[in-house]
């Protein structure tokens, strides 16, 4: 493992970092500064200045100016620049991945995995830059042709959450860029350093290609900058990732100006384990889904709905595996789980544990705060499993922590009803070798989530698919498939290549 100071040096992170940038130019924001604190050991890693509303306005102005030139560049040429960004990320993968782990607290392997996702989306976007297809339609009129084309929107604002501090930005930015948009990123105030590192990596690529200011911009700041973006008519699409509370506030503001937003919000994801499930795949999927990233993924497994006939067996297996889990420094590869993001998150975990106890939940694997050597940051908790006799309110909420609920079912319809009976609709899975059960789960009578899997858990996703969920998850789709269409405006074109103009309803004028 590389020394953290070498990692910071390699990424151009200094003790004090300007938190605003329009590309090549970085400047000190006028709204004070924040310390980036590592949940790994409680150390202050570095300080970042925060954007004021004046800084924000300057960034928007630069992006508006940049849009004209950027959209005029042919899409495959924009793709070629994104390809270079992907190459630069490959070069910095270990440093950036390590910083993600150190600033956010996810394991070293997950930090590297997150940067790999960025590289993958660059590759995807490069291919996409030659495939921004529109349809052609047969016109009902003689000598007419109809088709549709996709044009860039303008400025895409990106608000991101702490748990995927860099990948979510790249999912949005790389697709937005090949589509001909310019973008402005407001990262989580809990993880500003990884954002600065990304901006520096991209800046060098843009500079070497002679791309001017305003194509890729960064505004570090708290939620007030996000609120400015939501209210700003100049943000043509606002893609916001975070809690449902944030999404509702953003949707209301953007809706009031009839703007466009793409929302990626909370999840409350369940796995159904049927009597014929293969435990060799189900158990690792459950445990990885529940404790990966310390339960701080939007796709983390929060509920397991188990058939009554195998309930006791599954409990025994889970107890065995949870008994082997090691919690500690996420940069140590021997550890399975690192810390929560901060003390506030620990308090939320403790509050939820209290509510579970008061509601009569029984802990199969005990919760608790870890203290002593190696846990000085106060952010390390025990992953726990609670048996619930019914799906109470606390189970229906997303608690962003490694708390797993166990519920029993008798017939599959009941299990599907339980799985769907939460406000969120992001990810879901069934473990079964029975084709009828699998197909029912995937049918319109099955899971109501944006992601529904068979014999693979809820956690994570491949960039090739459209990512997102229904209900309080916000309805947005990002990344693969045809999610790019959210970043463009569709235009329907009709061309008359004949010498007369057939009017509707046969109306004629004497000329
Ligand atoms: P959060 O809502 O506290 O903050 C997310 C971002 O929104 C931050 O940048 C924050 O500054 C900004 N923000 C907060 N309030 C705002 C407002 N009123 N207007 C504009 N911006 C505002 O979320 P978090 O704690 O950083 O992240 C955890 C949450 O994110 C979880 O609910 C998780 O499920 C969700 N998440 C969802 C996805 C997804 O793709 N569905 C991905 C990652 C995280």
Written account of the structure:
Keywords: NAD, Oxidoreductase. With 511 residues, the protein is an alpha/beta fold. The protein has 2 domains: 4-265 and 474-492, Aldehyde Dehydrogenase, Chain A, domain 1 (3-Layer(aba) Sandwich); 269-466, Aldehyde Dehydrogenase, Chain A, domain 2 (3-Layer(aba) Sandwich), CATH 3.40.309. The chain is 38% helix and 21% strand. It has helices at 4-11, 53-72, 75-91, 93-104, 108-128, 167-178, 192-208, 223-231, 244-256, 279-291, 311-324, 343-358, 393-396, 412-420, 435-442; strands spanning 16-17, 20-21, 26-27, 33-37, 44-49, 136-137, 144-152, 155-159, 182-186, 216-219, 237-241, 260-264, 269-273, 301-307, 362-365, 384-387, 403-409, 424-425, 427-431, 451-454, 466-467, 470-471, 478-479, 488-496. The strands form 6 sheets. The protein has a 7-stranded mixed sheet, sandwiched between helices. Strands 15-16-17-14-13-19-20 form a 7-stranded mixed sheet, sandwiched between helices. Strand 19, helix 15 and strand 20 (451-454) form a beta-alpha-beta unit. Helix 4 (93-104) packs antiparallel against helix 7 (192-208) and helix 8 runs parallel beside helix 9 (244-256). The longest helix has 21 residues, at 108-128. The mean pLDDT is 97. Bound molecules: nicotinamide-adenine-dinucleotide. The site of nicotinamide-adenine-dinucleotide (NAD) has 30 residues, from helix 8 and helix 9.
Descriptive terms for the model:
511 residues; alpha/beta; Aldehyde Dehydrogenase, Chain A, domain 1; Aldehyde Dehydrogenase, Chain A, domain 2; 7-stranded mixed beta sheet; 15 helices; 24 strands; 38% helix; 21% strand; binds nicotinamide-adenine-dinucleotide
């Amino acid at each position: 493992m590389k020394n953290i100071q070498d990692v910071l040096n390699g990424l151009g992170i200094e003790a004090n970092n300007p938190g605003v940038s329009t590309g090549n130019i970085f400047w000190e924001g006028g709204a004070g500064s924040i310390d980036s604190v590592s949940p790994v050991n409680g150390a202050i890693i570095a300080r970042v200045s925060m954007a004021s509303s004046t800084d924000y306005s300057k960034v928007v102005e630069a992006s508006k100016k940049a849009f004209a030139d950027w959209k005029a560049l042919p899409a495959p040429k924009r793709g070629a620049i994104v390809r270079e960004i992907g190459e630069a990320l490959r070069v910095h993968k270990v440093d950036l991945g390590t910083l993600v782990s150190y600033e956010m607290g996810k394991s070293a392997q997950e930090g590297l995995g997150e940067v790999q996702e960025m590289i993958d989306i660059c590759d995807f976007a490069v291919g996409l830059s030659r495939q921004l297809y529109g349809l052609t339609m047969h016109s009902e009129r003689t000598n007419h042709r109809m088709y549709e084309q996709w044009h860039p929107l303008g400025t895409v604002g990106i608000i991101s959450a702490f748990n995927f501090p860099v990948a979510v930005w790249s999912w949005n930015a790389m697709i937005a860029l090949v589509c001909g948009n310019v973008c402005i990123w407001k990262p989580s105030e809990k993880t500003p350093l990884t954002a600065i590192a990304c901006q520096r990596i991209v800046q060098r690529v843009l500079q070497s290609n002679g791309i001017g200011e305003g194509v890729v911009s960064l505004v570090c700041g708290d939620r007030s900058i996000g609120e400015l973006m939501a209210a700003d008519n100049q943000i043509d699409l606002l893609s916001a990732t975070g809690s449902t509370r944030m999404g509702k506030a953003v949707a209301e503001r953007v809706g009031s100006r009839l703007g466009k937003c793409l929302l990626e919000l909370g999840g409350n994801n369940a796995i159904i384990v049927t009597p014929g499930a293969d435990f060799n795949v189900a158990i690792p999927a459950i445990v990885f889904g529940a404790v990966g990233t310390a339960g701080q993924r939007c796709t983390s497994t929060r509920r397991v709905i188990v058939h009554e006939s195998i309930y006791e067996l599954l409990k025994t297996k889970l107890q065995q595996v949870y008994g082997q889990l090691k919690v500690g420094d996420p940069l140590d590869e021997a550890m399975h789980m690192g810390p929560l993001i901060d003390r506030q998150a620990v308090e939320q975990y403790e509050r939820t544990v209290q509510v579970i106890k008061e509601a009569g939940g029984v802990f199969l694997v005990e919760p608790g705060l870890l203290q002593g050597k190696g846990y000085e940051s106060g952010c390390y908790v025990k992953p726990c499993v609670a048996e619930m006799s019914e799906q109470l309110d606390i189970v229906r909420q997303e608690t962003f922590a490694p708390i797993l609920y166990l519920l029993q079912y008798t017939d599959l319809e009941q299990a599907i009803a339980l799985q769907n009976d939460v406000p969120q609709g992001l990810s879901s899975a069934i473990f079964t070798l029975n084709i009828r059960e699998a197909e029912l789960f995937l049918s319109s009578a099955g899971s109501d989530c944006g992601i529904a899997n068979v014999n693979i858990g809820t956690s994570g996703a491949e960039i090739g698919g459209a990512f997102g969920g229904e209900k309080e998850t916000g309805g947005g789709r990002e990344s693969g498939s045809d999610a790019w269409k959210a970043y463009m405006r569709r235009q329907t074109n009709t061309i008359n290549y004949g010498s007369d103009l057939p009017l509707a309803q046969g109306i004629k004028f004497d000329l």
